[in-house]
Amino acid sequence: MTGTMNEIDSRTSGDRRPGIIICAYDGDDDGWDLVEDLSGEIWSPSGARAVPIAAADPDELASTLAARLGSGECRAVLLVGRTQKGAGFRVQMRAENRTLDYKHRLSSTGPGVARTTAPVADMVRALTAAGVQADASSDIEEDAGSYILYRVLSDLPDGPLTPSIGLLRAPAPANEAAVRKGVKAAASAMASHLTPLPRVG
To answer: What pLDDT, in 10s, does the model give residues 54-102?
Structure first.
């Protein structure tokens, strides 16, 4: 799924909720959608509009996410993947300047480390309140999630409002229901810090 129709609906209906992109970047986990079972409507956190983006090649996906943020319609990105470190959910707080195979620097001019802009403490509190084990960590897992995170952070558009970028990792044993609960909690915490889009005209 893409967020194109959501964005068109937003413009035509006067919906001023900022978009929050929710992306499970691993193609093997593309079943983690947020479509409500009975209504068929995509779940959105209070005060924001969920824009689901499907998994894709990491470079293509990073470019797509950067373009959506650059348009101004989306003010946040929540990347969702798996962790191999621990039995709980992890909010990863930083990413390294490394190529996808983690053998070289991605950018000769970029910073060695980029820190996420998401409200990490609030996300962990929301996850805990939702009944799942969670913590925040500076440990970097050498996978596509960390690579995409760095790419998006390093391509953030200039402006007075810094987009909120976060990476939520679910424990490998967690089933779809648990992941969905975690994603909703983390996305809601991020959305609580977003401001409405400006009025048009």
So the answer is: 889 999 999 999 999 998 889 999 999 999 888 899 999 999 999 999 9
**Contact between 104 and 187 (Cβ < 8 Å):** no
pTM of the full predicted structure? 0.89
The contacts of residue 92 (CB under 8 Å, 6+ apart) are 116, 136, 137, 138, 139, 140, 141, 145, 146, 149, 167, 168, 169
Contact 2, 11 (CB under 8 A): no
**Is the Cβ–Cβ distance between 96 and 148 less than 8 Å?**
no
Closest to 147 measured CA to CA, from 25, 31, 19:
25
Residue 6 token pair: 């959501």
3-class secondary-structure state, position 31? coil
What does the chain come to in residues? 201
DSSP helix/strand/coil, 80: strand
* pLDDT tens for each residue of 13-70: 578 899 999 999 987 765 566 766 666 788 999 999 999 898 899 999 999 999 999 9
Helix (H) or strand (E) segment spanning residue 21 = strand 19-24
Tokens of 148: 């995409």
Collapse the DSSP code of 70 into the 3-class scheme (helix H, G, I; strand E, B; otherwise coil) and give the result.
helix
**d(C-alpha 187, C-alpha 194), whole Å:** 11
> What CA–CA distances, in Å, run from 12 to 7, 8, 84?
9, 6, 43
3-class secondary structure, 140: coil
